[in-house]
Write a structure and sequence with these properties.
With 294 residues, the protein is mainly alpha-helical. The chain has 2 domains: 49 residues; 239 residues, MetI-like (MetI-like fold), CATH 1.10.3720. The chain has 12 helices and 2 strands, in the order αββααααααααααα. It has a two-stranded antiparallel ribbon. Helix 3 runs antiparallel to helix 9 and helix 7 packs across helix 9. The termini are far apart. 25% of the residues are buried.
Length: 294
């Protein structure tokens, strides 16, 4: 037997056990949750598992709270990601063209991304406090009444969008700036020689060349945005009422407040289906757009 064959066998001896451990750790919770989703199971009061088929799924799909949480999640995610992309791309362009103080801005713009969402939510809750918050103090200086930022449904959603935008715009800046620095300078030099305006250079050259990267950045932020829970939990708790309750917070309330494990497992798989549908639709539309700009 050759030394090369012996080396390959030794390699597999170390790889396969680790592979099976990772597979077990990954698949077992998923399969177990799928099994539980077809059962009626509660921890408080403790009830023995009882097979109910698709009843958990049917109850959730018939719940107005479920559809409301989908709408709330979609509004927060799509609006915040759109604003993040626009602002992030604009700031990346400014930093790429070496505006005065660009080195300082690059560091300061990235700081929010490294802060804990819970900490940011606590700070935002103090800032937007209906009576003692600095934001309302600012408006009071102009003789305006206090604004119920966290107790009025539309304003509470707007605050969540603002906080999400502030924290995750640096992520867009970082990736778009890296994409801008990787573009070939020869193309832009030729455009300047032809006296093409800055706007046309951006729209006809920069934007199409960065479109694949833009699709990836937006997709990552959409998927991450759908998992939002910590900011909502600390800032509004899903209120007023259930006006700002997202899908993940809905699942948390069902699982850790009502201890309804069967419904929570079914809700988790429905959440997965919702994310897959949104992701598929987005990628299909993005693919057509990329083909159009080629």
């Amino acid at each position: 037997m050759s030394a090369h064959a012996t080396t390959d066998r030794v390699k597999y001896v170390f790889i396969w056990p680790a592979f099976f451990v990772v597979l077990l750790v990954t698949l077992f919770p998923l399969i177990y949750a799928l099994v539980v989703s077809f059962q009626s199971m509660r921890l408080v009061p403790p009830t023995p598992p009882r097979f109910v088929g698709f009843d958990n799924y049917a109850d959730i799909l018939a719940s107005g709270r479920f559809w409301g949480s989908i709408w709330t999640t979609a509004v927060i995610v799509f609006i915040s990601v759109a604003v993040q992309y626009i602002i992030g791309f604009a700031l990346a362009l400014a930093l790429h063209h070496n505006v005065p103080g660009a080195a300082l801005y690059r560091v300061s713009f990235l700081l929010p991304m490294f802060l804990a969402p819970v900490g940011i939510a606590l700070i935002a809750r103090m800032l937007f406090h209906p009576v003692l918050g600095p934001v309302n103090e600012f408006f009071s200086a102009f003789g305006l009444e206090n604004i119920p930022f966290l107790t009025e449904p539309n304003l509470a959603v707007a605050v969540l969008i603002t906080v999400e935008t502030w924290q995750w715009t640096p992520f867009v800046i970082l990736l778009m700036l890296a994409g801008l620095q990787g573009l070939p300078n020869e193309v832009f030099e030729a455009a300047r020689v032809d006296n093409i305006s800055a706007w046309r250079r951006f729209w006809d050259i920069t934007f199409p060349m960065l479109l694949p990267l833009s699709v990836a950045v937006i997709f990552i932020r959409l998927i991450e945005g759908f998992k939002i829970i910590d900011t909502v939990f600390v800032l509004t708790g899903g209120g007023p009422g259930t006006a700002t309750e997202t899908l993940t917070l809905f699942a948390y309330n069902e699982g850790f407040k009502k201890f309804n494990l069967g419904a929570t497992s079914a809700l988790s798989f429905l959440f997965l289906i919702v994310v897959i549908i949104f992701g598929t639709l987005y990628l299909a539309g993005a693919q057509r757009m990329v083909r159009r700009y080629r």
